[in-house]
Amino acid sequence: MLLSKPIRSALFVPGTRLDRVPKAFATDADVVIIDLEDAVSPLLKVKARSEVVQLLTTTEHENVVVRVNGTESKYFDEDISAIAGTAVLAVIVPKVETAWDIGIINTAFLKAEDSKKIEHGSIPVIALIESAAGVDNISEITRAETIPPRLYTVAFGAADYTLDLGIEMTPNGTELLYARSRLPIACRAAGLVPPLDTPFMLDLKDLDALQKDVSMAKQLGFQGKLCIHPNQVAIVNQTFTPAPETVEWAKKVVKAFEEAESAGQSALQIDGKFIDTPVVLQARRILQLSST
């Protein structure tokens, strides 16, 4: 189960401020996340959900993701039921801590898909990891098997993670390094696409600090980053988009590999370097990112 393109940037919009959705897409964010969880007070949950569903049934935007309320929330089942069958690209489920949670999520989606008479597995899920338990169980979460496959990838939420541990976020991010390192490894080992990194929240005006944080996320193996302000999107997109020389290298590798494959050759060298299947796969990912 794959979305059509990698997600470099995903910009949050409160579920109570749907007027910001067109403005969010004007930033060139790859996806816009409409938030029904933290950004919506309990008194407005039902109203916001109804308005979001109305938007999703009429919007011309294809790349809309919804963050629903968590599995332990009284709003979860109704959120899933209401969103199923709309033009939603994927659903983010917060506070995922165990593989059992993935099963609960899949069951809720199957029920909603049956009710709306839509194909099972048609709505991919991004599991938000934002607690010590979630990080500790990340390998089991990413390997959780459901029928049909439901989990697209995971994302990291540092705000609740640091709250859970009773620590503070710092500019250098040392306190997040362990958690941020584990998520890409777990996704890769489980055969999922790379995860999405936590938003940068310390100083929204400090774009130099944002650049360092995004570069770290790329180096650790994330495919993109969650964003909470429009001014973050351009830097995030630029950082996660391959450089022109990297794209040219990838084109060269893929072309040479396809020519060798057509000729029945198993060994391939470019500029004196041996090219095997993992290198070709990496090159194809680069080309996919460059076309985003």
**Can you say what the CATH homologous superfamily of the largest domain is?**
Phosphoenolpyruvate-binding domains
How many distinct helices?
Answer: 12
**CATH overall fold name of the largest domain:** TIM Barrel
Q: How many distinct folded domains?
A: 2
Q: Structural class given helices, strands, pairing?
A: alpha/beta
Mean of residue pLDDT values? 92
Quickly give the CATH architecture of the largest domain.
Alpha-Beta Barrel
Global morphology: globular
The poorly predicted ranges are: none
Instruction: Summarize the biggest pleated sheet.
Output: 8 strands, parallel
- Measured distance between first and last alpha carbons: 18 Å
Report the radius of gyration as a whole number of Å: 20 Å
* Number of distinct beta strands: 10
Helix/strand order: EHEHEHEHEHHEHHEHEHHEEH
The CATH class assignment of the largest domain is: Alpha Beta
Strand order of the largest sheet: 6-5-4-3-2-1-8-7
* Helix fraction bin: 40-55%
% residues in beta strands: 5-15%
What does this structure look like?
By secondary structure, the chain is α/β, with parallel strands linked by helices. The protein folds into 2 domains: 232 residues, Phosphoenolpyruvate-binding domains (TIM Barrel); 47 residues, no CATH class. Helix content is 45%, strand content 14%. It has an 8-stranded parallel beta sheet. Strands 9-10 form a two-stranded antiparallel sheet. β1, α1 and β2 form a beta-alpha-beta unit. The longest helix is centred in the C-terminal third of the chain and has 19 residues. The protein is globular, with a radius of gyration of 20 Å. The two termini are 18 Å apart.
